[in-house]
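Summary for the lay section of the report: proteins are chains of building blocks that fold into shapes. Here we show the chain for Peptidase C45 hydrolase domain-containing protein and then a coded description of the shape we predicted for it.
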Amino acid sequence: MKVLHLQGEPREIGRQHGEQGKKEILKSLDTYERLFYGYQNIDWKTVRERAKIHLPTIEAFDKSLLDEMQGVADGAGLELEDVLALNARSEIALTGDAHTSFSDGCTSIGVSPPLTSDTIIGENWDWKGAQKDSLLLLQIKQENKPNIMMITEGGIIGKIGLNDHSLGVCLNALITDKKTDALPIHLGLRSILDATSLHEAMANIQNGQMASAANFLIGYSEGKHAGMALHVEVSPFGMAITNDDASCGVHTNHICAPTIQKNITDNNNTRYSDSEIRKRRAEQLIEMARQDGREINEQTFQTWLGDTFNAPNAINHYVNPRVPEHRRIETVFSIVMNLTEQNLYVCDGMPAHQPYQKYTFSNKGLINNG
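The coded shape description reads as follows.
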């Protein structure tokens, strides 16, 4: 996975992203242009027009997001609408008709005191295998905002990672019937990573500010025995915290909050053969560790995320060749974040078969500790 070191004003950060990650950005464009046309019969011109409805909201919410996307476009030799479409890809791909929406995966797990002394979050990102070649690990040094370590698809400026205020976020996609012209969820993820506290992060995504539904696993630590991990379902019609246990929680790819279900239809028609099983298996693994009195740490997470029970629809997700092509997904990468220690562990591929690399923040920036 290519690592990019970006710094400066938002447009300059974007320009560096676009210039240094051009190959990965073009891969993202190729993947989504093919997917949208092949499965929804939408050409890229139409995709760009659909994405443009979000421009007024983004500008009003935080103009620096637009500046950074414009910088990405400048650096990669593209137009802003191309980059905007990538950042609104979930609104385009995962809402609307259940028969044409794509399948999207992910199993996310969070633990915090009193179950553990450290606050740890992690997930497997399950999606199209073709997007392996689009992945970037970004280290972003910002002016007047937190510094960020984030894994993303080329061209997308908000995704999964942590900042130097010990605040991190993971994403679970939800396939639903409704969206609005509000803030795309990937930019909502970036707003969390741009926050300096848990209450600021929550304020950035409340009051129906998200254009579509998703689950954000938000973790925050203020040191040993002082942290929290919350599974927050967001939507255009409000939000809800779904983990009742203050010390742990699991989410996959179906809506859990009754308050969200009142306004949105869950179009995940593989809920009971895939998403529900992964969620219950992860909860089972946590409970077994609790009953055995085993320490839960980053290595425990790596074992959990490599679990192959009920393959191919396992936590470590394999391609299922027996389902339609648009529902063939796999674990593309895995990430574990110890927010208390500000360490990030990345598996480039399936954790059942590939090792993790450790990264950490320091005064000198991002360090690869092997």
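Put simply, here is one thing we learned. The mean pLDDT is 93.
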